[in-house]
């Protein structure tokens, strides 16, 4: 994590930093502002045995399952959303046992990430009482050491190897700006060991100095950045573009060649091929 | 007659019944939340804003706080739902609001609901070898026990959705309300009881199609939609696109 050096690298180089077996906190939610060009590049590079850590993955976890790149997941809710329903290749991977799920509530996953971000081994999380999830995951309660008698679930630290954030704009030195909701990207960027970013474009350094409150992640936390216009396709990136519903619908087709066609249609692939 | 037309002209479609009855859980001056994968509660919150003569705070998973969206999105987490918002109240914010006891009403999804108002959104069959892996509960396990009131909906009213025994308890704490195409349940003394049934259904039909035992003391046919409720839903779904996507049938 260095300041001021050249951080902008080609997407292929960014994805090549992720070894097989890595755990990845992926930014965004469902079809919105996910690092989807990055995920497709991992698939093109033949990555295996990955783990997704995300409160609400959808297309990203589904396409990784479809390509056989995933072996584990920590998630709260998984769906394609919109009007597309369940994530079919993810569902199949869990039902067949090819992918091992650690099922969370979104907030328990956040608690685990908070523990990592705060530098402590566990984090209390409200609610959860009466759910079967603690027995499934071995979550333990602790009693208030200050004597209120209240017992809360303590969620173990979750420290992903990488957070991968899809951003609107970056500075040349790697400051990250996001418009609209930040979903869980902030806590992901503070909890992961390394932070990688894909952005639509570079914005002038002066604009970051003018409005520093818009910077979600400062450059010194960011290892490297790639510039990929339309990189959240087929999802949305507010306010630049909306979900490409026909592209998602085409992706959902279960037939030979559909995944390859889908990967070839990604804006990052089209740019590389100068289409 | 199309389903959309039916919303205007008389018969009460399952789609309109669910959205309208979800909206009726919204109360003045409260904080109400709609989340991901929740097109019907999103429509209910937007309907309540249009149809009811009182103020409430509507927050949503796109970070919106009383937004003024330029259109109604297909995805209930679409960033359009933060257009015109005065703040971005992001995911960690609304979960923390809920766990510290300030979320008045939240809408949470469910695949199965039992008579205690607990939910399964995890799996059909054994969790470790599921016949069907479901999406997972999202906020449920944390929000259902900590929200002041939580309400869910099922687009299918049957003994496989309203069950005596859940395949897995994703979230406990007890729903305050459950809305199906033919019935509205609410919680009394820790159990779901029937509040009302669709005017085209009957108490016998609701009992026949419900897997858990329930009291129907005081239950009656659901009051039909008011002109304001009908007009609001028509304005939100003028072409019947949401109604067609939802594909809800009374039976």
Automatic annotation (TrEMBL), chain A:
TM region positions? none
List the SUPFAM superfamilies hit by this protein, alphabetically.
NagB/RpiA/CoA transferase-like (SSF100950)
Question: What name appears for this protein in its UniProt entry?
Answer: CoA synthetase
* Taxonomic source organism: Methylobacterium oryzae
The root-end lineage is: Bacteria, Pseudomonadati, Pseudomonadota, Alphaproteobacteria, Hyphomicrobiales
């Amino acid at each position: 994590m260095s300041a001021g050096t050249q951080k902008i690298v080609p997407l292929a180089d960014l994805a090549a930093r992720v070894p097989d077996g890595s755990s990845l906190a992926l930014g965004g939610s469902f079809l919105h502002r996910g690092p989807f060009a990055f995920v497709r590049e991992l698939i093109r590079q033949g990555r295996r045995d990955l783990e997704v850590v995300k409160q609400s993955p959808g297309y990203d976890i589904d396409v990784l399952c479809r390509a056989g790149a995933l072996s584990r997941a920590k998630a709260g809710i998984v769906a394609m959303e919109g009007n597309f329903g369940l994530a079919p290749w993810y569902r199949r991977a869990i039902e067949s046992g090819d992918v091992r799920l650690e099922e969370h509530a979104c907030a328990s996953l956040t608690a685990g990430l908070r523990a990592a971000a705060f530098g402590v081994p566990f984090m209390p999380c409200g609610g959860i009482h009466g759910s079967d999830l603690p027995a499934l995951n071995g979550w333990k309660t602790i009693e208030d050491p200050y004597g209120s008698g209240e017992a809360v679930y303590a969620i173990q630290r979750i420290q992903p190897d990488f957070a991968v954030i899809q951003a609107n704009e970056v500075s040349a030195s790697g400051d990250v700006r996001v418009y609209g909701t930040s979903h869980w990207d902030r806590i992901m960027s503070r909890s992961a060991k390394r932070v990688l970013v894909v952005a639509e474009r570079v914005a002038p350094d002066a604009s970051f100095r003018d409005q520093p409150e818009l910077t979600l992640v400062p450059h010194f936390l960011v290892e490297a950045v790639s510039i990929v216009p339309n990189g959240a396709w087929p999802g949305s990136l507010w306010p630049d573009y909306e979900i490409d519903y026909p592209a998602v619908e085409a992706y959902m087709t279960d037939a030979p060649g559909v995944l390859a066609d889908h990967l070839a249609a990604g804006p990052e692939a089209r740019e590389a091929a100068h289409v | 007659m199309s389903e959309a037309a039916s919303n205007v002209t008389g018969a009460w479609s399952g789609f309109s019944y669910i959205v309208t009855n979800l909206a009726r859980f919204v109360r003045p001056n409260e904080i109400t939340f709609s989340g991901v994968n929740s097109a019907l509660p999103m429509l209910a919150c937007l309907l309540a804003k249009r149809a009811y003569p009182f103020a409430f705070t509507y927050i949503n998973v796109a970070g919106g706080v009383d937004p003024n969206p330029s259109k109604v999105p297909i995805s209930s987490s679409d960033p359009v739902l933060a257009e015109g918002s005065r703040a971005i109240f992001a995911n960690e914010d609304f979960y923390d609001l809920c766990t510290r006891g300030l979320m008045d009403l939240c809408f949470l999804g469910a695949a199965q609901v039992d008579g205690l108002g607990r939910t399964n959104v995890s799996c059909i069959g054994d969790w470790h070898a599921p016949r069907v892996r479901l999406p997972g509960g999202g906020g449920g396990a944390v929000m259902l026990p900590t929200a002041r009131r939580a309400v869910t909906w099922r687009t299918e009213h049957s003994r496989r959705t309203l069950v005596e025994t859940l395949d897995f308890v994703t979230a406990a704490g007890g729903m305050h309300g459950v809305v199906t195409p033919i019935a509205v349940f609410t919680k009394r003394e820790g159990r779901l009881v029937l509040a009302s049934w669709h005017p085209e259904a009957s108490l016998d039909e609701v009992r026949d199609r419900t897997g858990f035992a329930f009291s129907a003391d005081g239950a009656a046919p659901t009051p039909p939609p008011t002109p304001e409720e009908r007009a609001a839903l028509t304005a939100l779904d003028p072409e019947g696109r949401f109604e067609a996507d939802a594909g809800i049938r009374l039976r």
